[in-house]
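Batch 3, record 17
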Amino acid sequence: MRLLNHFPGQLGRRMYAAPSSAAIPAAKKKYVPTSGTYPQGFKVSGTVVGVKPSNTTKPDLAFITSDRPCAAAAVFTKNKFQAAPVTFSRSLLQQKKNSGLQGVLINSGCANAVTGKGGLEDAEAMATEADKALGAEKGTIVMSTGVIGQRLPIKKILDNVPTAFGKLGASHDHWLTCATAICTTDTFPKLISKSFSLPSSPSVEYRIAGMTKGAGMIHPNMATLLGVVATDAPISPELLPGLLKGAVDKSFNSITIDGDTSTNDTVALLANGAAGGQAIVSERSQDYEAFQEVLASFSTDLAKLIVRDGEGATKFVTIRVTESWSEEGARKIASTIARSPLVKTALYGKDANWGRILCATGYALVTEPGASVNEVAEITPEKTNVSFIPSDGSAELRLLVNGEPEVVDEERAAQILEHEDLEILVRLGTGKEEATYWTCDYSHEYITINGDYRT
Amino acid sequence: MRLLNHFPGQLGRRMYAAPSSAAIPAAKKKYVPTSGTYPQGFKVSGTVVGVKPSNTTKPDLAFITSDRPCAAAAVFTKNKFQAAPVTFSRSLLQQKKNSGLQGVLINSGCANAVTGKGGLEDAEAMATEADKALGAEKGTIVMSTGVIGQRLPIKKILDNVPTAFGKLGASHDHWLTCATAICTTDTFPKLISKSFSLPSSPSVEYRIAGMTKGAGMIHPNMATLLGVVATDAPISPELLPGLLKGAVDKSFNSITIDGDTSTNDTVALLANGAAGGQAIVSERSQDYEAFQEVLASFSTDLAKLIVRDGEGATKFVTIRVTESWSEEGARKIASTIARSPLVKTALYGKDANWGRILCATGYALVTEPGASVNEVAEITPEKTNVSFIPSDGSAELRLLVNGEPEVVDEERAAQILEHEDLEILVRLGTGKEEATYWTCDYSHEYITINGDYRT
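Prediction for the assembled complex:
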């Protein structure tokens, strides 16, 4: 028999369950907000269901609702093995043409992935039960995260939907509990909120709030990564998919923990217009551009929290590749450096090993043997520069200048690497494009967490 | 000042120096031959030079020579930052049209990479000094492996070339010492030899011998991977590059330790014809085909030794992807599974986590966001099968059958995962092509080795 029980974590290990506020590591507490400004018309809750039988205390069912129909869009994983909630929600959004949505119901503890026809029925049943509570018609999308290949304890979940509905509220505590309910191996809930205004309605205060979860299998397209962003700004349904895609490419799709990409990844955006003001109805309006910027920056802040909580991570590393002939080339190089196990272990070892950074740069555009894809562009070794940008605002430390190694002050390098945050800057000297990735290091704890995950 | 000294390894750590026979781990001793049959006309040596000042006892200069001119070919790294010995040797082989070569001189301890014009002069000086000893004219190619960005202690090396020449010999001990001299973080020298015959000269005994070194930065195209293969079969120079490329694609380019690809990788093939018999002069001869097969299988055995010695490795895993619509697709999927940190940590944890294997399969053909490359073909979830093939010859353990999870006997899975060797078989059910990769797991020791490498 497959053993799928997950026993509560031992000391020193991550638990495969949502974190309680007591369990948040001291160093991470600063990333958990103690207050917030949340969009009007939204109510949320987090409920203890016990999706995993071992869980009797942590919220594992999140419900995000709007008191009026929303425009909604979502970006889904590109993994060929798409989980049932992905298939269901994608189809619903298409059918509804991105309008008339009212809720998002999310369980953690079980991914409902590779579960065949039964799994799809479970996903639909969750949505139907939520619709019933909300009095909506085909108004709920669903998400799941957890172990693959296991059916949901669907009765337990459905029985708890009325409870989840009854617990809905708009306070900061409601939002934080809801954000906690979507966590798996995360060590802290990831929640952000902020206010903004739009050019055409300067007196209206709009709000945007979002939650996300990581922590393993994080790599673009996308990851065991769920995200929900809600705003009370009024936006036309047909504009939402483009706005979300643009924001996700530069945020959730620019982070990497381990290069793995999961079956369940979903980021959804809901806009209910409850704050009033002039609606955004055209891509060529100032409001559209302003909101696009707000959403991209907000999504980036949210995505960075996932890297902060990378499994076993001790470092938060920004990889910036500039002066590139193309954005695509810069992205590929940033991504390759961000994924390199040798770079990631050197960072863990606080080792200013620019050779490994250079090495990763050098093979980033090399195709697999036998592949028919050609290299897209050239790197010129004599034009390549690598530097560390310290997080304390002090001067850049040059490691490689125009392809020649610098005599490095190792003491200074060691000081820079003592900080949690670091930027690695690679200037290619061949153009004007750039790209940024965020990543973390590989530690002994990463191996422990992932060697032990199922047992 | 950059600190480039490498102090002798502490207990429990790999030394960044060639292994002495006393230091070879008990479990690896079976991979080190105690005798061999070596190709005629070749003499080799390994000499203690002290390329790294801390090394005073381990051979670190390898010299492989032939008493007559050889046909020679080499496959080099595709990394954009190519080390000086790569640039030098590639150019020499072109200039000599793959003929008239007599020696290969290799140092470990310093990669002579990212060393500019001076580095290129050093590579050339090594070759010239070897030529002088051999009485050859432009007859030596060179290789280097070790830390990047450091100049060679060139005087020390050149001063020792006559010594290396004086120590040349054809015995098994000579070959083993030579194989030891190219090692860096390897825990054992990698040497194989065998005899073979060719259809047109059935009474002639040909021999082939080869050495290689790994252990980190191992991924196709290629790795901090050096290899030299020598045979006494008579082969036309113009046929050698094609023969070698074909063999390397299915051997050295089908292994992965950590997905990193280095600046120095070189595999060279020398054929001196000393055994006599009918020369291979056409691609359309039976002898050509027979030798191609010998070389491919020999190179595969050699390459597998590198995986056996992967940094921190506790497992040797064969990834076979069959029933694919294309070999390219199968390769990409096998490579992606082989590189997945989540698969590699699960193997370390002896966890039959087929979800991660499936997940890697599902994202193998997904392009980076923003990339213009399209997916080459389709995976059909309902046709996908995943099994473990035990190394003890017992029955296959089915994990996923036609996209549906099996009820897995976890006890049996645990038994299978106790063995060092394992085959993961993925049947795609969409065609007839296949590809095989070899990989190892990620352990705590991998992190320790690579977090500490420079310090």
